[in-house]
Design brief:
The complex is a heterodimer of chains A (202) and B (203).
Chain A lengths: L6 H11 L5 E4 L9 E4 L4 H10 L7 E10 L2 E14 L5 E14 L2 E10 L4 E9 L8 E3 L8 H12 L2 E3 L30 E5 L1
Chain B lengths: L2 H9 L7 H10 L11 H10 L22 E5 L7 H10 L5 E5 H6 L21 E3 L6 H16 L24 E2 L4 E2 L10 E5 L1
Parallel strand pairs in B: 1-2, 2-3
Antiparallel strand pairs in B: 4-5
Helix pairs in contact in B: 2-6, 3-6
The chains are: A alpha/beta (202), B alpha/beta (203).
GO cellular component, one term (chain B): plasma membrane
Main location (chain B): membrane
Subcellular location (chain B): Cell membrane
Chain lengths: 202, 203
């Protein structure tokens, strides 16, 4: 299948149809060039309904919902800064000094939706949504009301990543049991230690 | 009984045996496995029972669909943590004497999924295993070898004395605790009466 309509066109159509919606194109520079659209929370359901119902797009099939964990990361940059340095002779002199700066980028959780059109035979269109953070505010609007096939996969993303999909009809754990406290697909998950090897003194 | 005397008597057309031999001979040739499979190893187990490999030659032709009628549990495949309580419960429901073959890398140790959050690191953490078969999956020949190994084990069992098997000792357990779903994994993580950690000699 080929991508008949470019992401730029989809973004323009989306913004025209849903007033106030904010979409951002995330480019994929690899040969696959599957660029994706990052959409905001408030208009996500309307945008999704538009993508499904628009006569030109007709993205009637949501094939895949994935969770992605982006942990907090630190970026170290080397910046050249002009500084006034006092030389041994006692003169004030302006010099270029290299400084390392560390910037903390807070982590978030992401849901990725792959959409196809069975009717128009095009796709995938990749839709993404990001949570505010990885802790208590890991919430996203559910797209299950628009694509029924997202129901179990959103449950799976909830189960393994802890993304709470608001508006989901039946948000329960699907693979792990009720009462399980962890989210095992998160990067910082550590499985419980099991002592199956015992060191014995000689 | 003296083996030479036995052979001598059989030359004269007199068949002698002991109750123990007769009992074990009967049991080892009618081991009925429980019908259940957990993963890809189950396909090899099914192949073993089919015409090409024909496990029926060894008396294990009837796979029973009820644990109440089964003697042997072939744990064929990955035991997930979600499935482990059911496997232990099925084992508890089997009548004594009962045996377990852990088939394949997953059933004996967790195999390639050992470091996963969802896989039990070997069924021998909860129930006593008689024969372990490595392999991923083991070939039908390996399962038959394990089965013959089990038959040899049954044949060598004594009915009396200290060496008698577990099911003939009144104070030995026949049922094992079923693990429960906890917040971070199964609780308990293993049954210390059954599972003994690998001991490595350190300095």
């Amino acid at each position: 299948m080929t991508q008949a309509i470019s992401v730029e066109e989809i973004k323009a159509a989306m913004e025209a149809a849903v007033p106030g919606c904010r979409a951002e194109i995330l480019r994929n520079e690899s040969p696959s060039a599957q660029h994706s659209l990052l959409i905001d929370h408030e208009h996500a359901v309307n945008v999704a309904a538009f993508l499904r119902d628009d006569m030109a797009l007709r993205l009637d099939f949501c094939s895949c919902v994935s969770g992605v964990d982006w942990p907090d990361r630190e970026i170290t940059e080397k910046v050249k800064v002009k500084k006034t340095v006092t030389t041994p002779e006692g003169e004030a002199q302006e010099q270029d000094v290299e400084e390392t700066r560390k910037t903390m980028i807070p982590g978030f959780l992401e849901a990725v939706y792959h959409l196809f059109s069975i009717e128009k035979k095009h796709g995938p269109v990749v839709l993404r949504m990001r949570t505010v953070n990885r802790g208590g505010d890991a919430r996203l609007p559910s797209l299950t009301p628009v694509w029924r096939s997202a129901e179990f996969q959103e449950r799976e993303a909830f189960d393994l990543y802890g993304i709470v999909f608001e508006g989901h009809p039946d948000l329960r754990r699907i693979l792990m049991w009720e009462g399980f406290a962890d989210y095992p697909m998160r990067k910082d998950y550590v499985p419980p230690a099991e002592d199956d090897v015992e060191a014995v003194a000689k | 009984m003296d083996q030479e005397l036995k052979i001598e008597l059989s030359k004269h057309g007199i068949f002698t045996t002991t109750f123990e031999e007769l009992y074990n001979w009967g049991r080892k040739n009618s081991v009925w496995p429980l019908t259940f499979g957990l993963a890809c190893c189950a396909i090899e187990m099914i192949a073993t029972t089919m015409a090409r490999y024909d496990l029926a030659r060894f008396g294990a032709e009837v796979f029973r669909a009820s644990p109440r009628q089964a003697d042997l549990m072939i744990v064929s495949g990955t035991v997930t943590k979600k499935m482990a309580p059911q496997v232990v419960r099925l084992y508890n429901q089997m009548p004594e004497p009962k045996y377990v073959i852990a088939m394949g890398a997953c059933a004996i140790s967790g195999g390639p999924f050992r470091d996963g959050y969802n896989v039990l690191k070997g069924i021998d953490r909860y129930i006593p295993v008689d024969v372990h078969i490595p392999g991923c999956p083991p070939r039908p020949e390996a399962l038959m070898h394990a089965f013959i190994t089990l038959q040899k084990k049954i044949d060598a069992q004594q009915l009396t004395g200290e060496e008698r098997p577990r099911h003939l000792k009144a104070n030995e357990p026949s049922e094992f605790p079923v693990p429960e779903f906890g917040e971070h994994g199964l609780e308990p993580a293993q049954n210390p009466d059954v599972f003994h950690p690998l001991r490595i000699l350190g300095q």
